[in-house]
Amino acid sequence: MSTRELRSLPAEYLWDGLVLKEDIFNHTGTVLLLPKGETITKRKMDKLMGFYGENKNVMVYEETYLEIMSDEHLPEEARQKLMENHVGYAHLHENIGALFDRPDYDSWLSTEKLAPLIREVSSKLEDFDPVTILACINFPRPMDEGLQRHSLNVALLNGMQAEWLELPPDDINTLVLAGLLHDIGKTMIPEEILNAPRRLTDEELAIMRDHPVYSDELLKGKFDDYVRLAARHHHEKLTGTGYPDGIGGDDIGFCARITAISDIYDAMVSARSYKGARLPLDVFDMLYQEEFDGLDRDLVMTFLKNMRARYTNRQVIMSNGRRGEILYIPLNDADHPIIRQDDDIRQTDEEWYCKEILSIG
Known about the structure:
By secondary structure, the protein is α+β, with helices and mostly antiparallel strands. The protein has helices at 42-49, 62-69, 76-87, 89-100, 111-127, 130-138, 146-164, 169-181, 191-194, 202-208, 211-219, 225-233, 254-269, 280-288, 297-311, and strands spanning 6-10, 24-25, 32-34, 57-61, 315-318, 323-328, 338-341, 344-347, 354-357. 46% of the residues lie in helices and 10% in strands.
């Protein structure tokens, strides 16, 4: 057997007609199940997997794992699960959820105690392509996982922006930490408001808008002002029309300005029961058209420049169910990119549009 790395894969993710480019093995990686060149059939897989009781996983080489992960035959939710495990996002999300569920803040809420987690989050920015990380961020999340996923996503997005701005490692880690903790005050908001599957009433919205103040109170004396004020001020606007303090202009710090962009991007690509998720390309267009007022325009343009560059030449699944490739994303019309599908090259429209951006392949 080859010494190349093997990865565990649920057998249910293999489909009828898949021609194996490499061998696949049983769940221990010790028994050859099907050789390279074999065509998968459900009958064949059911027979083989019947020998292994409740364990319905197989072992495949890394190249096969990535190929299956990006294939349009795989249901979107299954592809997402594989992606989150591949990146280590699922592990990070679990760790953050365990922390946020603990009411004894003094046991973990400090720069020193969070340092290993911040290093782990930052390492993902070094180990994986941004679009691979964004594939984890962009997927709609369950309502009861909203705060944990949002906090992890903003931490990753803050780190990406810091790298694109060519900031030193210590500043990258500070921005990752600020992203992770920017909404910590929401742990003080009643769950029936935080996870309401509907638009909030005016009274509930007023309570929700207190979360930056709660964040400030939880972080005060434990973290430096960059982190604390990013949490308090990421909903402030340069125009002075934000909350909770109504400050504007230079009174809003650099860390808060970056966190505001990450916060808005993640909020827009997520989905709540009363608001559908948006494709990243739609959010790019909204940011360019300044649908979110009061953001730092220079930072927004840096964000868009780098996002557009990373998504160009990426594979997409189109509304007709077939693959295409993004050739160009117009800055002033990002939600209508130029796509190549086979020999056809044209701009998307209301009937022919991108349904999903693939992170691999």
